[in-house]
Amino acid sequence: EVQVLESGGGLVQPGGSLRLSCAASGFTFSSYAMSWVRQAPGKGLEWVSAISGSGGTVHYADSVKGRLTVSRDNSKNTLYLQMNSLRAEDTAVYYCAKCSSSCQTGSFDIWGQGTMVTVSS
Amino acid sequence: DIQLTQSPSFLSASVGDRVTITCRASQGISSYLAWYQQKPGKAPKLLIYAASTLQSGVPSRFSGSGSGTEFTLTISSLQPEDFATYYCQQLNSYPFTFGPGTKVDIK
Protein backbone atom coordinates (compact mmCIF):
# COMPACT_ATOMS: atom_id res chain seq x y z
CA GLU A 1 0.00 0.00 0.00
CA VAL A 2 1.25 3.44 -0.92
CA GLN A 3 1.39 5.63 2.16
CA VAL A 4 3.18 8.46 3.90
CA LEU A 5 3.28 9.02 7.64
CA GLU A 6 4.28 12.25 9.36
CA SER A 7 5.85 12.59 12.79
CA GLY A 8 7.68 15.15 14.90
CA GLY A 9 4.99 17.68 15.68
CA GLY A 10 4.51 19.19 19.11
CA LEU A 11 4.49 22.32 21.22
CA VAL A 12 7.37 24.77 20.73
CA GLN A 13 8.01 28.29 21.96
CA PRO A 14 8.14 31.25 19.58
CA GLY A 15 11.60 31.45 18.05
CA GLY A 16 12.16 27.75 18.58
CA SER A 17 12.88 24.91 16.18
CA LEU A 18 11.30 21.61 15.23
CA ARG A 19 11.98 18.94 12.61
CA LEU A 20 9.14 17.08 10.98
CA SER A 21 9.63 13.73 9.28
CA CYS A 22 7.54 11.91 6.70
CA ALA A 23 8.17 8.20 6.19
CA ALA A 24 7.15 6.86 2.79
CA SER A 25 6.36 3.28 1.81
CA GLY A 26 4.83 1.32 -1.04
CA PHE A 27 6.44 3.28 -3.89
CA THR A 28 9.88 4.14 -5.28
CA PHE A 29 10.42 7.22 -3.15
CA SER A 30 13.29 8.70 -5.15
CA SER A 31 11.16 8.80 -8.31
CA TYR A 32 8.62 11.25 -6.93
CA ALA A 33 8.63 14.86 -5.89
CA MET A 34 7.12 15.57 -2.49
CA SER A 35 5.42 18.53 -0.85
CA TRP A 36 4.42 19.91 2.53
CA VAL A 37 1.02 21.54 3.02
CA ARG A 38 -0.28 23.07 6.24
CA GLN A 39 -3.65 23.94 7.67
CA ALA A 40 -4.08 26.37 10.54
CA PRO A 41 -6.91 25.53 12.97
CA GLY A 42 -10.26 26.19 11.30
CA LYS A 43 -8.61 27.52 8.13
CA GLY A 44 -7.94 26.38 4.60
CA LEU A 45 -5.00 24.61 3.01
CA GLU A 46 -1.69 26.41 2.44
CA TRP A 47 1.10 24.97 0.31
CA VAL A 48 4.45 25.26 2.12
CA SER A 49 7.25 23.61 0.15
CA ALA A 50 8.15 21.12 -2.55
CA ILE A 51 11.25 19.09 -3.37
CA SER A 52 12.18 17.12 -6.47
CA GLY A 53 12.81 13.39 -6.42
CA SER A 54 16.56 13.84 -6.35
CA GLY A 55 16.37 16.61 -3.77
CA GLY A 56 18.21 18.96 -6.06
CA THR A 57 15.34 21.40 -6.61
CA VAL A 58 13.28 22.98 -3.85
CA HIS A 59 10.54 25.60 -3.71
CA TYR A 60 8.98 27.52 -0.82
CA ALA A 61 6.03 29.71 -0.05
CA ASP A 62 7.09 33.29 0.66
CA SER A 63 5.63 32.99 4.17
CA VAL A 64 8.23 30.38 5.18
CA LYS A 65 11.22 31.22 2.98
CA GLY A 66 14.42 31.50 5.03
CA ARG A 67 12.91 29.80 8.08
CA LEU A 68 11.73 26.37 6.89
CA THR A 69 13.95 23.97 4.96
CA VAL A 70 12.79 20.89 3.10
CA SER A 71 15.11 17.94 2.48
CA ARG A 72 14.95 14.23 1.82
CA ASP A 73 16.98 11.10 2.43
CA ASN A 74 16.17 8.70 -0.40
CA SER A 75 18.16 5.91 1.28
CA LYS A 76 15.72 6.11 4.19
CA ASN A 77 12.57 6.89 2.16
CA THR A 78 12.05 9.91 4.37
CA LEU A 79 11.11 13.55 3.78
CA TYR A 80 11.96 16.25 6.30
CA LEU A 81 10.90 19.78 7.16
CA GLN A 82 13.32 21.68 9.38
CA MET A 83 11.43 24.53 11.03
CA ASN A 84 13.43 27.38 12.59
CA SER A 85 12.48 30.79 14.03
CA LEU A 86 8.95 29.58 14.53
CA ARG A 87 6.10 32.06 14.93
CA ALA A 88 2.58 31.78 16.31
CA GLU A 89 1.26 31.92 12.74
CA ASP A 90 3.11 28.68 11.94
CA THR A 91 0.68 26.83 14.22
CA ALA A 92 -1.03 24.28 11.98
CA VAL A 93 -1.44 20.66 11.02
CA TYR A 94 1.40 19.85 8.61
CA TYR A 95 0.67 17.34 5.88
CA CYS A 96 3.20 15.49 3.77
CA ALA A 97 1.97 14.79 0.23
CA LYS A 98 3.33 12.68 -2.61
CA CYS A 99 3.26 14.36 -5.99
CA SER A 100 1.94 12.32 -8.90
CA SER A 101 5.23 12.70 -10.74
CA SER A 102 6.68 16.15 -10.55
CA CYS A 103 4.52 18.46 -8.45
CA GLN A 104 4.24 21.12 -11.12
CA THR A 105 1.56 20.19 -13.66
CA GLY A 106 0.74 17.15 -11.55
CA SER A 107 -1.26 16.67 -8.38
CA PHE A 108 -0.90 15.61 -4.76
CA ASP A 109 -2.16 12.06 -4.94
CA ILE A 110 -1.25 10.62 -1.53
CA TRP A 111 -1.49 12.52 1.77
CA GLY A 112 -0.40 11.61 5.28
CA GLN A 113 -2.65 11.98 8.31
CA GLY A 114 -0.85 15.15 9.40
CA THR A 115 1.14 16.21 12.45
CA MET A 116 0.18 19.16 14.65
CA VAL A 117 2.66 21.95 15.35
CA THR A 118 1.74 24.46 18.03
CA VAL A 119 3.88 27.57 18.54
CA SER A 120 3.06 29.15 21.87
CA SER A 121 4.73 30.38 25.03
CA ASP B 1 1.25 34.69 -7.43
CA ILE B 2 -1.87 33.09 -8.88
CA GLN B 3 -4.96 33.61 -6.75
CA LEU B 4 -7.88 31.18 -6.74
CA THR B 5 -11.44 32.03 -5.75
CA GLN B 6 -14.22 29.52 -5.18
CA SER B 7 -17.97 29.99 -5.27
CA PRO B 8 -20.02 29.46 -3.37
CA SER B 9 -18.09 29.37 -0.10
CA PHE B 10 -20.91 27.39 1.48
CA LEU B 11 -23.81 25.45 0.07
CA SER B 12 -26.60 23.51 1.65
CA ALA B 13 -27.93 20.59 -0.40
CA SER B 14 -29.95 17.39 -0.14
CA VAL B 15 -29.04 13.81 -0.94
CA GLY B 16 -29.60 13.29 -4.67
CA ASP B 17 -29.02 16.94 -5.61
CA ARG B 18 -26.71 17.98 -8.43
CA VAL B 19 -24.02 20.26 -7.04
CA THR B 20 -21.63 22.54 -8.93
CA ILE B 21 -18.66 24.39 -7.44
CA THR B 22 -16.72 26.99 -9.42
CA CYS B 23 -13.03 27.85 -9.12
CA ARG B 24 -11.58 30.90 -10.87
CA ALA B 25 -7.88 31.68 -11.33
CA SER B 26 -6.43 35.20 -11.45
CA GLN B 27 -4.51 34.25 -14.60
CA GLY B 28 -4.51 31.37 -17.03
CA ILE B 29 -3.33 28.04 -15.68
CA SER B 30 -4.06 25.82 -18.71
CA SER B 31 -5.57 22.63 -17.27
CA TYR B 32 -3.26 22.36 -14.27
CA LEU B 33 -5.97 22.31 -11.64
CA ALA B 34 -6.82 19.67 -9.04
CA TRP B 35 -9.80 19.20 -6.75
CA TYR B 36 -9.63 17.75 -3.25
CA GLN B 37 -12.23 16.65 -0.72
CA GLN B 38 -11.60 17.06 2.99
CA LYS B 39 -13.72 15.76 5.86
CA PRO B 40 -13.35 17.10 9.42
CA GLY B 41 -10.20 15.86 11.13
CA LYS B 42 -9.01 14.04 8.00
CA ALA B 43 -6.40 14.65 5.34
CA PRO B 44 -7.48 15.97 1.94
CA LYS B 45 -8.23 13.38 -0.73
CA LEU B 46 -7.52 13.89 -4.44
CA LEU B 47 -10.67 13.72 -6.57
CA ILE B 48 -9.79 15.27 -9.94
CA TYR B 49 -6.50 16.27 -11.59
CA ALA B 50 -5.64 17.98 -14.85
CA ALA B 51 -9.00 19.75 -14.50
CA SER B 52 -11.08 16.80 -15.69
CA THR B 53 -9.32 13.48 -15.01
CA LEU B 54 -10.94 11.38 -12.31
CA GLN B 55 -8.47 9.95 -9.80
CA SER B 56 -8.51 6.16 -9.58
CA GLY B 57 -11.10 4.90 -7.11
CA VAL B 58 -13.15 8.10 -7.05
CA PRO B 59 -16.86 7.57 -7.85
CA SER B 60 -17.99 8.61 -11.33
CA ARG B 61 -20.59 11.00 -9.91
CA PHE B 62 -17.67 13.44 -9.52
CA SER B 63 -16.56 15.29 -12.64
CA GLY B 64 -14.46 18.30 -13.47
CA SER B 65 -14.26 20.67 -16.40
CA GLY B 66 -12.68 23.90 -17.54
CA SER B 67 -9.40 25.36 -18.67
CA GLY B 68 -7.65 28.69 -18.57
CA THR B 69 -9.20 30.62 -15.71
CA GLU B 70 -12.57 29.00 -15.01
CA PHE B 71 -13.17 25.51 -13.69
CA THR B 72 -16.04 23.53 -12.22
CA LEU B 73 -16.45 20.49 -10.00
CA THR B 74 -19.79 18.74 -10.34
CA ILE B 75 -21.32 16.07 -8.16
CA SER B 76 -24.13 14.57 -10.22
CA SER B 77 -26.11 13.05 -7.35
CA LEU B 78 -24.99 14.03 -3.87
CA GLN B 79 -24.49 11.11 -1.48
CA PRO B 80 -24.35 11.22 2.34
CA GLU B 81 -20.58 10.62 2.28
CA ASP B 82 -20.04 13.66 0.04
CA PHE B 83 -20.77 16.22 2.74
CA ALA B 84 -17.33 17.78 3.16
CA THR B 85 -15.21 20.77 2.20
CA TYR B 86 -13.86 20.95 -1.36
CA TYR B 87 -10.69 22.76 -2.41
CA CYS B 88 -9.25 23.56 -5.82
CA GLN B 89 -5.48 23.88 -6.30
CA GLN B 90 -3.44 25.29 -9.17
CA LEU B 91 -0.23 23.47 -10.09
CA ASN B 92 0.66 25.57 -13.13
CA SER B 93 3.38 27.54 -11.37
CA TYR B 94 5.03 28.04 -8.00
CA PRO B 95 3.93 29.00 -5.45
CA PHE B 96 1.10 26.52 -5.69
CA THR B 97 -2.13 27.93 -4.32
CA PHE B 98 -5.37 26.53 -3.02
CA GLY B 99 -8.80 28.06 -3.21
CA PRO B 100 -10.46 29.07 0.07
CA GLY B 101 -12.75 26.03 0.05
CA THR B 102 -16.44 25.27 -0.41
CA LYS B 103 -18.25 23.60 2.46
CA VAL B 104 -21.10 21.33 1.37
CA ASP B 105 -23.59 20.80 4.17
CA ILE B 106 -26.79 18.87 4.60
CA LYS B 107 -30.01 20.79 3.98
UniProtKB/TrEMBL annotation, chain B:
SUPFAM superfamilies: Immunoglobulin (SSF48726). One of its GO terms (cellular component) is plasma membrane. Keywords: Adaptive immunity, Cell membrane, Immunity, Immunoglobulin, Immunoglobulin domain, Membrane, Secreted. CDD domains: IgV_L_kappa (cd04980). Residues 2-89 form the Ig-like domain. It holds the Pfam family V-set. GO terms for biological process: adaptive immune response. It is found in: Cell membrane; Secreted. InterPro entries: Ig-like_dom, Ig-like_dom_sf, Ig-like_fold, Ig_sub, Ig_V-set, IgV_Light_Chain. This is IG c660_light_IGKV1-9_IGKJ3.
